[in-house]
Amino acid sequence: MADETPHIEPTWSATGSLRPEYFDSLYAANGDPWAFASDPYEAAKYAATLAALPQARYSNALELGCSIGVLTRQLAPRCAHLLATDIAEAALSQARSRCADLPQISFERRDLTTEFPAGRFDLILVSEIGYYLSQVDLDQLRAWIARALAPGGNVVLVHYTGETNYPLTADAVHETFRAWEGRYWISVAAQCTESYRLDVFTSVGDQHVI
Q1: Domain harbouring 85, CATH code
Q2: How many Cβ atoms are within 10 Å of 65's Cβ, its own excluded?
Q3: What is the DSSP letter of 25?
């Protein structure tokens, strides 16, 4: 993860997550604040993420936090339909342009502390967004993901493990999902490099989520 982010003071929601205005300010100051399109770290991480996917093809995939659409474009050929969401309209505008020739992709602006896309998905990708949430909001997101995951579907988490000023660490995010292992999903792959952590889970079937 390149240190390209401008210095923007975080703003916090009532539950302790980063507010949408923080991301709006980041993209206003720098159109690619994390250098997703140019950083070798990001390119290597995207390649590892795609290589870790258990299935060659997905019918209905969901990417949470697509940013400017760099990974979205790489993921799309493996999806019959891909819904990509982000909290920042400036990021989504770039993502739509980058992926304009890929009709299987749709984009929605979503604040994942308050709303989750409708539908069932056989792939849900959570890349570099979980640690922007407080623990209470991450717990809610986990429940929404468990409810939306189709039987036999995959959840993929990838997060930078270096020092940040975010509400949670990468380890806290991944261990939150691992806490439900055997209840809603099982671990099928795990990697931990010096820069990021990657976990892949497979649904154990339809379960009622409290």
Answers
A1: 3.40.50.150
A2: 21
A3: H
